[in-house]
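User: Hi! I'm working on a homework problem where we have to compare a predicted structure to a textbook description. Could you give me the structure for the chain below?
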Amino acid sequence: MAETTTGSTSGQSVTQDEDNDEDRDPMEDTAFSYEAASQRPFYARDETIETFDSWLNYELERELSIRGYQNIVVREMTDALLRTVVEEDLVDEVAERFEQARYDAIPESGE
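Assistant: Happy to help. Predicted structure tokens:
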């Protein structure tokens, strides 16, 4: 079964049966179904989540649309993002942002 969405990341979905994997169109058909995904909680500051949601919905989704993809769903974009962090070995970059947040949380003396 493949899930298609109406209105891109609107959350509304309609499922349809696919008889043959050879008939799948990577420009229109999602890479994996909703049932194949696992939802995990992410705990982050509201500002970070709002910035991420904006980037995901306006930057990444727009880029994928420009490249000709249809039925763009959040689970696929999130999966690609998580795979990128791991596969591109972004440990140093993530650690630097972690450290910077810790230092930014310390109030400056003399105020």
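For your comparison, note the following. The radius of gyration is 18 Å. The longest strand covers residues 2-5. Good luck with the assignment!
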